[in-house]
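Input (structure):
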C-alpha cells in the first residue's frame, strides 16, 4: 500500500481545515443573520401582536364544546392539538422566542377574545436561559417570571377561565457551540421556578407537571423526547398529550 508523503499530507490537511473553517463560518453567519432578524422583528413588533391579529379565529360558541388555548413561548407554539378529543376545539397562541413579559402582555389581545374555557400555559424558559448572560440579575429574572405567571393567572381568573399551568420543561444536553452562553444555573433556575409553580394550584388552576413527565433520572430532558436542548420532538408531545387528556376530563366536571 502506497503511503502518503508529507508533501501530499500537508496540503490535504490544509484543505480539510479550510473546508471545516468555511463550514463553521457559514453556520455562524446563518446564526448571526437569524438573531439579527429576530432582534429587529422584535423591535418592530415587541409583543408579536401581528402573529395573531385581534379577533382571528374567534368562532361562535357551540353547545357542549369547550374552547382550549395553548399559550406561551415556542414550547406552547409547537404543542399539537389533541385531535379528535370529543367536546373540545383548540387554538394555539404560542410564539417562539418570547419571554414571560411578552407572553403576559399579549393576553388581552390573543387570548381574551377567544373566551376560552381552559388555557394551557407553558412559559419562562426564554427568561431563564439568559441567566449566564446576566448572572447578577438571576434572582430578578426568576422573580419576573413568577410575577408574569401570576399576571396570566389573574387575567384568566377575571375571564372566568380555568388554567392548566404546566411546569417549565427540563433542558437537555447542550451542543458545543452553545456552551459559551450556557450554565448549570439555567437548570437550577428551572427547578426553582417549578417549585413555585407547583404551589399555585387552586380551584381554577391545575398544575400539569410536564417537567416530571419529560425528565430523565439526571433531571435532563430525556433523549427520547428531545428535538434539541430546549424543544420536544413528536414523541415528547405525544407523551404529554396522553396525560393532558386526563386533566381536561377533570376540568369538564369542575364548575
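Output (sequence):
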Amino acid at each position: 500500500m502506497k503511503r502518503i508523503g508529507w508533501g501530499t499530507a500537508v496540503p490535504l490537511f490544509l484543505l480539510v481545515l479550510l473546508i471545516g473553517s468555511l463550514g463553521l463560518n457559514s453556520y455562524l453567519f446563518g446564526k448571526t443573520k437569524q438573531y439579527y432578524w429576530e432582534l429587529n422583528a422584535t423591535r418592530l413588533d415587541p409583543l408579536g401582536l401581528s402573529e395573531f391579529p385581534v379577533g382571528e379565529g374567534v368562532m361562535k360558541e357551540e353547545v357542549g364544546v369547550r374552547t382550549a388555548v395553548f399559550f406561551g413561548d415556542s414550547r406552547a407554539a409547537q404543542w399539537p392539538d389533541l385531535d379528535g378529543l370529543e367536546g373540545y376545539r383548540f387554538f394555539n397562541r404560542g410564539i417562539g422566542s418570547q419571554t414571560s413579559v411578552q407572553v403576559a402582555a399579549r393576553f388581552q389581545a390573543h387570548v381574551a377574545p377567544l373566551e376560552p374555557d381552559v388555557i394551557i400555559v407553558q412559559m419562562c424558559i426564554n427568561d431563564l436561559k439568559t441567566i449566564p448572560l446576566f448572572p447578577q440579575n438571576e434572582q430578578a429574572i426568576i422573580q419576573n417570571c413568577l410575577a408574569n405567571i401570576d399576571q396570566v393567572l389573574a387575567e384568566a381568573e377575571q375571564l372566568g377561565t380555568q388554567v392548566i399551568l404546566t411546569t417549565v420543561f427540563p433542558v437537555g444536553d447542550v451542543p458545543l457551540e452553545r456552551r459559551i452562553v450556557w450554565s448549570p444555573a439555567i437548570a437550577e433556575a428551572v427547578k426553582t421556578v417549578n417549585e413555585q409553580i407547583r404551589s399555585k394550584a387552586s380551584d381554577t388552576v391545575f398544575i400539569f407537571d410536564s417537567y416530571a413527565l419529560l425528565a430523565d433520572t439526571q433531571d435532563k430532558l430525556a433523549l427520547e423526547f428531545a428535538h434539541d436542548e430546549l424543544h420536544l420532538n413528536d414523541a415528547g408531545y405525544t407523551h404529554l398529550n396522553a396525560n393532558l387528556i386526563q386533566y381536561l376530563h377533570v376540568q369538564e366536571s369542575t364548575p
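Notes: Residues 174 and 229 are 5 Å apart (CA to CA). Residues 6-44 form the longest helix (39 residues).
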